[in-house]
Amino acid sequence: MKLRELATGDLEALIGASHGVAGGIGADDLEITGVTADSRKVKPGMLFVALAGTKADGAGFAADAVAKGAVAILSATPLDLSVPVLISPQPRRSLALLAARFHAGQPETMVAVTGTAGKTSVASFTRQIWAFAGLASAQIGTTGVVSPSRNDYGSLTTPDPVALHTLLSELAAEGVTHAAMEASSHGLDQGRLDGVHLAAAGFTNLGRDHMDYHPTVEDYMAAKMRLFDTLLPKGAPAVIFADDEWSAEAIRVASEAGHDVRTVGRAGTFLSLKRVEHFRHKQIAEVHHEGAIYEVDLPLAGDFQIANALVAAGLAISTGVPAAVAMRALEKLEGAAGRLELVGQAKSGALAYVDYAHKPDALEKVLTAVRPFTSGRVIVVFGCGGDRDKGKRPIMGEIANRLADIVIVTDDNPRSEVAATIRGEVMAGTPKGIEIGDRAQAIRAGVAMLATGDTLIVAGKGHEEGQIVGSQTLPFSDHAEIRKAMEEFHP
Ligand SMILES: CC(=O)N[C@H]1[C@@H](OP(=O)(O)OP(=O)(O)OC[C@H]2O[C@@H](n3ccc(=O)[nH]c3=O)[C@H](O)[C@@H]2O)O[C@H](CO)[C@@H](O)[C@@H]1O[C@H](C)C(=O)N[C@@H](C)C(=O)N[C@H](CCC(=O)O)C(=O)O
Ligand SMILES: Nc1ncnc2c1ncn2[C@@H]1O[C@H](COP(=O)(O)OP(=O)(O)OP(=O)(O)O)[C@@H](O)[C@H]1O
Ligand SMILES: N[C@H](CCC[C@H](N)C(=O)O)C(=O)O
Ligand SMILES: [Mg+2]
User: Fold this and answer.
1) CA distance 297 to 299
2) How far does residue 253's CA lie from ligand 3's centre (Å)?
3) Burial code of 423-458, b = ≥16 C-beta within 10 A, e = fewer?
4) Where is this motif: Meso-diaminopimelate recognition motif (predicted)?
5) 95, 96, 47, 93: which is closest to 68 by C-alpha?
6) Which of 183, 316, 450, 469 sits at 20 to 30 Å (Cα–Cα) from 382?
7) Which pLDDT score, from 0 to 100, does residue 21 have?
8) Which residues line ligand 1 (CB under 6 A)?
9) 382-396 tens-digit pLDDT
10) Is 430 assigned a ligand-binding role in the annotation?
11) From atom 8 of ligand 2, which residue's Cα is the shortest distance away?
């Protein structure tokens, strides 16, 4: 693709700016063979985008990129190089727009969901509702990519723009017309979604997370709100969960941006939740929408799943699924892998779940959610990740101490940190905590304790399939360890 075709619209000004920078007339005639922000991935003919990151400054790799065959550079500041240098005040946004144009084609109807907890669940539920309505649909997020033809494991919640647009263009070519993606605060802050054309967007909630990256919770919220104040086209539906502490702020931002705000939940007006009955493996919810009353038999445990289901239904209805169809689809929902997923049931009836709560709010919600159907004790096994927000450790300890009867503190991806130190910081919040570093042994101990009426929650890893120690990922599965211990203690 010619640089001229690549750099049009928003980017036209940039190519103008490039003339003369490298003395390069005819720069716009350059044939570009690819776009990347990683000098290690440069192939001859590519455009290299220099980004200032958290660890390195891409500008320092620009000369290396040219040596590898890059024929043009995009940078925030002028660079003295032998190839044209396009200047952009927002190189991350430019990268996203360039990637979207180079890897053209996206599923026609795309939605994105943000919030501290529930994104993966909402993306999965939205895909499932669309599929129920007969639409070719996909989900993109923490657990990877699911579409009619794929079930690929992923690494980032919001992929980088080049990976994202390569994927979107492939999905579109495969016939996927509807896709739901997760918008992480990192992704939004770094402009990873800036090239995506959104039909609607959703918000679940805000709690403490990523305080290692965002200086304050307001900054964290502001990053999330980019979805509404910058990315979602004016007038598009904004589906907002109404019962969170931060709902009012999200509604304010979305209204000010001129969106069609649709609130869901107990305080919601688009989908109003009037009544919920909790059962062991399901719940029955009464939902009102435009004068109609639906009684929904949701086959998932946990009050928070109703919130996720309503946001997903709101997004599906806002993208053309009839409300009655969406409500019927909710009755067939499968939980996202590792999100309050029932993995074992002892003869005594005691239940063992795997959950992905790895932040305070999520842990609070999940431990609260299982209480109504637990006549015995709530037992929790969890830890905190290394090289991540240290402040949340004692907070999560305190939550477990308050909401569980038995607390077992173990390891969860210590990464470069000393595992015992992390456990110590969690233990500081939980006087009743029992410390068992080896995660398999911790799970075994939790399962061994299970008696009639008890519920075990193994939290933090969810769908993950490894334990990261140092720079190594050792194979590990909470699911497999629970099943093994179940056979041993509750055959
Ligand atoms: C902190 C963070 O978000 N980092 C992301 C960010 O990297 P960065 O720009 O800061 O990278 P950097 O290492 O400082 O390098 C700066 C630039 O120099 C380039 N470089 C670097 C070295 C080199 O030899 N050549 C070269 O060109 C890099 O490619 C980069 O463009 O941009 C990269 C490209 O998009 C991401 O891969 C990278 O994610 C790292 C791997 C990561 O762990 N991110 C996590 C924290 C993350 O994004 N998580 C969120 C949220 C998850 C959740 O909600 O729990 C997610 O969406 O997954
Ligand atoms: N609506 C919700 N409110 C509060 N907690 C929730 C909600 N939905 C899920 N959770 C809790 O958060 C965990 C993660 O859920 P999910 O993966 O859907 O969220 P996420 O926003 O994608 O998280 P991440 O950013 O870690 O990928 C669940 O296992 C559960 O403990
Ligand atoms: N995307 C999150 C997942 C954390 C999951 C938990 N198991 C941990 O390692 O802290 C992160 O990398 O921060
Ligand atoms: Mg997620």
Assistant:
1) 6
2) 28
3) bebbbebbeebbbbeebbebbbbbbebbeeebbbbb
4) 412-415
5) 47
6) 183
7) 46
8) 37-40, 51, 53-56, 58, 61, 156-158, 160, 184, 186-187, 190
9) 999 999 999 999 999
10) no
11) 118
Q: Does the annotation flag 115 for ligand binding? A: yes
How confident is residue 30, by pLDDT bands cut at 50, 70 and 90? confident
Whether residue 4 contacts residue 32, with contact meaning beta carbons closer than 8 Å, is answered with: no
Asked if residue 362 belongs to a known ligand binding site, the reply is no
Task: Name the strands in the sheet holding 406-409, side by side, starting at the edge strand that comes first in the sequence.
Answer: 341-345, 351-355, 455-459, 378-382, 406-409, 434-435
Three-state DSSP state, 75: strand
Question: In terms of pLDDT, which residue wins out, 179 or 54?
Answer: 179
Looking from the CA of residue 116, the nearest atom of ligand 2 is 21
Rounded Cα gap, residues 48 and 46, in angstroms: 6
Q: What is the DSSP letter of 10?
A: G
Helices (H), 133-205: 161-173, 185-189
From CA 253, how far away is CA 210, in angstroms rounded?
Answer: 21
At 403, list the tokens. Answer: 């909401």
Residue 385 CA to ligand 3 centre (angstroms): 6
ipTM of the complex: 0.95
The percent of residues in the chain predicted with pLDDT above 90, rounded, is: 85
| Backbone φ, ψ for residue 259 (5° rounding) | -85, 165
| Sign of the torsion formed by the C-alpha atoms of 151, 157, 161 and 163 | negative
Q: How far is the CA of 334 from the centre of ligand 3 (A)?
A: 23
How many residues in the chain?
491
Average pLDDT score, the chain? 94
Q: How far is the CA of 316 from the centre of ligand 2 (A)?
A: 19
Residue type, 197: H
Residue 355 to residue 338: CA distance in whole angstroms: 5
Instruction: Give 53 Cα–ligand 1 centroid separation in angstroms.
Output: 7
pTM of the model: 0.92
- Which residue in 301, 377, 335, 347 sits closest to 486, CA to CA? 347
pLDDT of residue 25: 43
pLDDT tens-digit map of 172-230: 999 999 999 999 999 999 999 999 999 999 999 998 766 667 788 888 898 899 999 99
Residues 6+ apart with CB under 8 A from 218: none
Q: How far is the first Cα of the chain from the last one, in angstroms, to the nearest whole number?
A: 62
CA dihedral sign of residues 45, 49, 55, 59: positive
Domains of the chain (ranges; CATH) run: 3-98 (3.40.1390.10), 109-331 (3.40.1190.10), 341-490 (3.90.190.20)
Q: Which residues line ligand 2 (CB under 6 A)?
A: 115, 117-121, 142, 157, 182, 204-205, 304, 307-308, 336, 339-340, 355-357, 361-362, 365-366, 462
Instruction: Give the ligand 2 atom nearest the CA of 142.
Output: 27
